[in-house]
Amino acid sequence: MPTLNIGNRLRTGRWLLVVMVALLHGALVVGVKSPWVHPLLLAHFGLFLIWQPLWRGEREVGRGALAFITVASVVAMFWLDWWAMAFWLTGLFGLVGARVFVFRKRSTRLIYLLLLAYLLAALLLWVVPNIFSAQSSIDSGFILINYVLPVLLLLMALLPFYKETVDVSQTVDFVYSLLLFMLLTLVVLGALAFMTLGRMDYLEALLRTLFLIGLVLLALGGLWNPRFGFSGLQFMFSRYLLNVGTPFESWLSRLTETAQREPNVTSYLRGAVAMLEDFSWLSGFSWQSPGETGQVGQISAYSAAMQEGELRLTMYARQPFNPTLLLHIQLLVKLIGYFYQAKQREQSLRDITRLQAVYETGSRLTHDLKNMLQSLLSLTSIAQSREDHAQQLLLQQLPLLTQRIEATLLKLKQPLHEGETPGLPLHAWWDNLRMRNQYQEIGWLAPDSLPDRQIPAPMFDCVFDNLIDNALRKRQHEADITIFIEIRTEPLRLSVCDSGSPMPKNIAANLLRGAVVSENGLGIGLYQAARWATQLGYTLALTSNQPGKVCFEFKPAEGAK
């Protein structure tokens, strides 16, 4: 069987608490002048060391701690009087009050509330009257200490007590405990002040003190939360906790400006960690990131390491870190890490954008090469034929093909930006398109005259070469369909239609938005052509997908010139 930890069982048990308080009660009953008070208090102090929530009782006591406990016990016993008893009861009241609401079970909390009531009554109605030699109050307290308070001890022994984990029971709010200690000290000293200055009885002085302290607490409670436009002490206290060492708002503004100003992750990280030099309580700090490591200042024995994603920061201080300072450091490191991760995502998006631009440029050039190879294949077939017009057709088409090859080679050597796309009059481009496809069975519908409007010819060629190529490929499976291309000038609209079967709905819905899987390919050509058209202020859309009428329409985007 596993060994049971007796210290844990005693510290979470009810009988340890009851016996400890019973020994204290015996010492209070016999008084500080009795020879029995010293053994009773020594036994009480020993049980307190097992019960105390300040450090774990199962840990081995070192020589320094043992010497301190021994010296404190000897001094307390040598100078034992009612003032020492008042100080001890006040300290117990602060420790117990700081852990009352840690326990989840209602009965357990009730036991500790009874203990608080016992300590408060014993202090104010028995110990303090003995300090001030208030005989009338001592007579009333005699009844209390001998008959009433033992009933509280009996209730503590009879109420059900549920064991809870050691980690929960060890939790102590030091600030709350200190506030309770100071509040109870203020009650005692306030009663003393009223007795001395007002020359009144102890009970009357105690009631006045409690009344004034109650008014002050009521006023502080009203000021703690916002009322009538006042921000409240709670907000001011929270700002104080955040402004440890430096104004938090100004530091955050500087950090935000650094994140917006610096172009990359490395420069931002250097600027952010340089701002940590504003903290006077830091002797130095170091950081480790995937791209860089560095150190500023001196390394000390007191350090705090914080990890935020791939960024690790280690702070070195001249003095040990207190809990409030650690909370402040964690918040600052989280802010630095948040902007660091944002910069990393921004850098990744820029890299993805560059790769996407390279991919799109390569895809366009690939489709240009494909179209030129198809044109070259057609010209090769014509050259091998023995028809009379073959030589004349070659003389007409070869200069156009040469121009397209030169334009593609120029793109490979020096990629063009959107504003540098070469222009061509609309009527000239229309004539070249008809000439390239004059031996295909395509109907051409156009007005008698076309304007001299300049258009981005490479993009127009990419769009309509893909549309015509898809329609001709469709004719291979549906031999009797007709294809016609129409152009309108006011406003400018160009359409490519065929009389074949419609596309499936799932393919038509995503055709110009991304790559789609179909029998003839992935639709990448039309997708790239549509993206290029959008970048230059044009739109390509499937306007009709019905049996006998499948039409694509190409036009300037709304608002484009």
UniProtKB/TrEMBL annotation:
Respond yes or no to whether keyword Iron-sulfur is given for this record. no
Gene3D superfamilies for the chain: Histidine kinase-like ATPase, C-terminal domain
What positions does the domain Histidine kinase/HSP90-like ATPase occupy?
A: 455-558
Read off the CDD domains from this record: HATPase
Instruction: Give the catalytic activity.
Output: ATP + protein L-histidine = ADP + protein N-phospho-L-histidine
Gene Ontology terms for molecular function: ATP binding; protein histidine kinase activity
Enzyme nomenclature, EC number:
2.7.13.3
**Keywords, alphabetical:** ATP-binding, Kinase, Membrane, Nucleotide-binding, Transferase, Transmembrane, Transmembrane helix
Record Pfam families: HATPase_c (PF02518)
Enumerate the transmembrane spans. Answer: 12-30, 36-54, 61-80, 86-103, 110-129, 141-162, 174-194, 206-224
PANTHER family named in the record: SENSOR PROTEIN CREC, SENSOR PROTEIN RSTB
- Name-wise, this protein is histidine kinase
